[in-house]
TrEMBL record:
This is Helix-turn-helix domain-containing protein. SUPFAM superfamilies: Homeodomain-like, Regulatory protein AraC. It comes from Larkinella insperata. Pfam families: AraC_binding (PF02311), HTH_18 (PF12833). Keywords: DNA-binding, Transcription, Transcription regulation. Signal peptide: none annotated. The keyword Transcription regulation applies. Residues 190-288 form the HTH araC/xylS-type domain. PROSITE patterns: HTH_ARAC_FAMILY_2 (PS01124).
């Protein structure tokens, strides 16, 4: 059966221990309990997995990645996710609520400083170099041990270890190197992305965002090319297309309704825009997603 809407899961529904803000587990038993998570779904919490073994693919916001040992991926609330695993898959999974660090850190934007926790798919899937694989695995072992005890300050230890993990992973990313080279430009880029999240339905032109950032459109374009490798206009269009894809997998919405939701003048203009950016029409994208879900359901049925 194909679900008409994308389910949204919360920690208290997924956690075996009914913890409110944090869930830590080996991935194999987590996967055994939550087989339905292979279908497209969303979370209202942060979600990260370190793979230790297994194959197949996983999708984040319709970007497909091969499963590889010592690959780690991060997801923020609201992203669309699905799996198609092959063979035995194991590793570690950590889920935590947006409020988990609020009482621990004074900075409200603490998580947003890490490139892999900003919802940029290309920066959220990272292969761990061999020289630090033992260190990263140790972090997850400590997290698992602390989550299974009732010791004093146990949750604070979990937070402290997660911060060590975040810093270790952040030092691997090109975005971190770019940030060290040009903190000012990196800050502008992050503010640009935050503005897009709030305004992508109404503001479509780089000059409109540049005005809000108090810089010239050319400077904004230069920053995006330097730090992301694409022009500022494409950053905006990519976000619109991503939202369109998220709504297209909701079969309760017609293409015309989605065009209206995204503030397009008419369905024809929306279709042309989507095809130019995604390479297929909205209906073709939806039909392919339906086929993919049927294939996934068929594979799951054969396993059962």
């Amino acid at each position: 059966m194909i679900k008409k809407d994308i389910p949204v899961y919360s920690i208290d529904k997924l956690s075996l221990f009914k913890q409110k803000d944090i869930q830590i587990s080996r991935f194999a038993p987590y996967l055994a309990v939550h087989k339905n998570l292979h279908l497209a779904h969303k979370h209202d919490f942060y979600h990260l997995i370190l793979f230790l073994e297994g194959g197949g693919t996983h999708d984040i916001d319709f970007h497909k990645f091969p499963v590889q040992p010592y690959q780690i991926y991060f997801m923020i609330p609201g992203q669309v996710h699905s799996w198609s695993f092959e063979g035995h898959v194991d590793g570690y999974v950590v889920n935590f609520s947006p409020s988990f660090f609020h009482s621990f850190m004074a900075r409200a934007d603490f998580l947003g400083q890490y490139p892999f926790l900003n919802g940029i798919v290309e920066e959220s899937v990272i292969d761990i170099p061999a020289d630090i694989q033992p260190k990263v695995k140790h972090y997850f072992e400590v997290l698992l041990q602390e989550s299974e005890t009732d010791s004093t300050f146990g949750l604070d230890m979990v937070r402290a270890v997660l911060i060590q993990l975040f810093i270790t992973i952040s030092r691997l990313s090109d975005a971190e190197k770019n940030r060290q080279a040009s903190l000012h430009n990196y800050t502008i880029l992050k503010n640009f992305q935050k503005l897009i999240e709030v305004n992508y339905n109404t503001l479509r032109l780089p000059k409109e965002y540049a005005q809000k950032l108090f810089i010239t459109p050319n400077y904004l374009n230069t920053i995006c090319r330097q730090l992301m490798g694409i022009p500022s206009g494409e950053v905006i269009r990519n976000r619109i297309v991503m939202e369109a894809k998220r709504q297209l997998v909701n079969l309760d919405l017609t293409v015309a309704e989605i065009a209206y939701n995204l503030n397009f003048e008419d369905t024809s203009y929306f279709t042309k825009f989507f095809k130019k950016q995604a390479g297929v029409t909205p209906r073709e994208f939806r039909e392919e997603e339906i086929k993919r879900v049927k294939r996934a359901n068929s594979r799951l049925g054969s396993i059962r």
